[in-house]
Automatic annotation (TrEMBL):
<feature type="binding site">
    <location>
        <begin position="364"/>
        <end position="368"/>
    </location>
    <ligand>
        <name>ATP</name>
    </ligand>
</feature>
<comment type="function">
    <text>Catalyzes the formation of acetyl phosphate from acetate and ATP. Can also catalyze the reverse reaction.</text>
</comment>
<dbReference type="InterPro" id="IPR000890">
    <property type="entry name" value="Aliphatic_acid_kin_short-chain"/>
</dbReference>
<feature type="active site" description="Proton donor/acceptor">
    <location>
        <position position="181"/>
    </location>
</feature>
<dbReference type="InterPro" id="IPR004372">
    <property type="entry name" value="Ac/propionate_kinase"/>
</dbReference>
<keyword id="KW-0547">Nucleotide-binding</keyword>
<dbReference type="Pfam" id="PF00871">
    <property type="entry name" value="Acetate_kinase"/>
</dbReference>
<comment type="pathway">
    <text>Metabolic intermediate biosynthesis; acetyl-CoA biosynthesis; acetyl-CoA from acetate: step 1/2.</text>
</comment>
<dbReference type="InterPro" id="IPR023865">
    <property type="entry name" value="Aliphatic_acid_kinase_CS"/>
</dbReference>
<keyword id="KW-0067">ATP-binding</keyword>
<feature type="binding site">
    <location>
        <position position="52"/>
    </location>
    <ligand>
        <name>ATP</name>
    </ligand>
</feature>
<comment type="similarity">
    <text>Belongs to the acetokinase family.</text>
</comment>
<dbReference type="InterPro" id="IPR043129">
    <property type="entry name" value="ATPase_NBD"/>
</dbReference>
<feature type="binding site">
    <location>
        <position position="418"/>
    </location>
    <ligand>
        <name>Mg(2+)</name>
    </ligand>
</feature>
<feature type="binding site">
    <location>
        <begin position="316"/>
        <end position="318"/>
    </location>
    <ligand>
        <name>ATP</name>
    </ligand>
</feature>
<feature type="site" description="Transition state stabilizer">
    <location>
        <position position="274"/>
    </location>
</feature>
<keyword id="KW-0808">Transferase</keyword>
């Protein structure tokens, strides 16, 4: 609408009839183009050495382009773009940083005539603390708060801010919105987020459980409610996001009431390289008896444990499954521990629910590994789950659907789409603010 009124004012100022007629034709074309081109949201997910992006129609989730800049801050830095299924990789120039990546992205977007269609930018921000439980318009004050919250997410929030600031430089005319990974779990009750620690650590220092992967749990929960044809506010699910990072969430009436990741994304089930829950005394033992420094313990628990640590082979589930088939015992142990811990966590969430509409698998492993899904479901027969092995084998590689036996409670595989949630929520916020 803005474009129409602006053009009408311009028209009033035009003096000669001929020029006026030419302008009307020109403006007609402009207006038609404006309304034919669909508005797109640029979604940015910035890590310390990577920057993922997607240019998306928030209504349909259709991507005009996507890609990733990787190995940033090193001389291997590169950026890859995918448009219409075709991939193109470019080396980045010095200083190989996030700004360089954004400049290349803008060049690419402009070359593909997509720049004008971008209406706003949605940023994934990992930690929103207790303050942010909604999509939030980014202002200098919000950036300050994201910076303050870096003490709770030192690896993620500073990187997210770098992405926001690099993007602001080139898209200064557009609004930027933050979508927080922790937001969906802000509905957890106190009993689920308070640790068994002195209460003042929560009051004075914010030490509590926050949960992560919120946009993913939100997306699959919505999808499951439409598959079930039941209003989201009446749906109870357990969702298992199993990727390199893993989290299980209990959803009551469409809202998160508990989740396995906690103060940081280290708590909970065994993951690709993260240990998940351990007895905290192991840390004292490592430091006092084995001479580890705190930095070494941090690296051990976050980067050297999980599937990688147990198997001694890889954090990649595909590689471990190959080794399992080849008869490798440590690969088998890694998969057994992984699945048993996940099944135990799912079962423990029966304490959070009065009834259960179904279980959802998502994430790289949840969407693709029939082996892992089958092992987990087999351990949950007491809760009424049983896999249909044929469906379980079929529903992989981007397919969505039920994998349960007819005698079982419902169990779905739902490919997640965090970018779509970010694009949609960014668009909603703009509409709600009348922009
Ligand atoms: P994500 O972090 O969601 O990208 O998931 C990464 C994980 O998904 C890695 O452990 C991959 O090995 C795993 N994954 C992807 N495809 C498959 C597959 N076909 N079978 C087993 N695991 C897979």
């Amino acid at each position: 609408m803005k474009i129409l009124s602006k053009n009408l004012i311009k028209l009033r100022d035009i003096k000669t009839f001929k020029f006026k007629k030419a302008m009307i034709n020109y403006q007609h074309v402009e207006i038609v183009n404006h309304f034919m081109k669909k508005p797109l949201i640029l979604v940015i997910n910035c890590g310390s050495s990577s920057l993922k992006f997607s240019l998306m129609d928030p209504k349909t989730g259709e991507e005009s382009l996507n890609g990733i800049a990787q190995c940033l801050l090193s001389d291997n830095a590169n950026i890859s773009f995918k448009v219409n299924g075709e991939k193109q990789v470019l080396a980045l120039l010095p200083p190989f940083d996030h700004n360089t990546a954004i400049v290349e992205l803008v060049n690419f977007i402009t070359k593909n005539n997509l720049f004008e269609q971008i209406t706003a930018i949605g940023h994934r921000v990992v930690h929103g603390g207790e303050k942010y439980h909604q999509p939030t318009l980014i202002t200098p004050q919000v950036k300050n708060e994201i910076a303050k919250l870096a003490k709770l997410a030192p690896l993620h929030n500073p990187a997210n801010l770098v992405g926001i600031e690099a993007t602001e430089k080139v898209f200064s005319h557009l609004l930027q919105v933050a979508i927080f990974d922790t937001a969906f779990h802000q509905t957890m009750p106190e009993k689920a987020y308070i640790y068994g620690l002195p209460y003042n650590l929560y009051q004075e220092h914010g030490i509590r459980r926050y949960g992560f992967h919120g946009t993913s749990h939100y997306f699959v929960t919505q999808r499951a409610s439409s598959l079930l044809q039941k209003p989201l506010e009446q749906c109870n699910f357990i969702s298992a996001h199993l990727g390199n990072g893993c989290s299980i969430s209990a959803i009551v009436n469409g809202k998160s009431v508990d989740t396995s990741l906690g103060f940081t994304p280290l708590e909970g089930v065994v993951m690709g390289t993260r240990s998940g829950d351990i007895d905290p005394s192991i840390i004292f033992y490592l430091v006092e008896q084995l001479g580890y420094s705190l930095d070494q313990v941090n690296t051990l628990l976050n980067k050297e444990s999980g599937l990688l640590g147990i198997s001694g082979i890889s954090n990649d589930c595909r590689t471990i499954e190959e080794q399992l088939l080849a008869g490798n015992k440590r690969a088998k142990l890694a998969i057994d521990v992984f699945c048993y811990r996940i099944a135990k966590k799912i079962a423990s969430f029966s304490a959070s629910l009065d009834n259960l509409d179904g279980l959802i698998f998502t994430g790289g492993i949840g969407e693709n590994s029939n082996t892992i899904r089958s092992l987990i479901l087999n351990q949950l027969s007491l809760l009424g789950f049983k896999a249909n092995e044929q469906l379980n084998e079929e529903i992989r590689f981007g397919k969505q659907g039920n994998i349960n036996d007819t005698t079982s409670r419902p169990c779905w595989v739902i490919p997640t789409n965090e970018e779509w949630v970010i694009a949609e929520q960014t668009q909603h916020l703009l509409i709600n603010k009348g922009m």
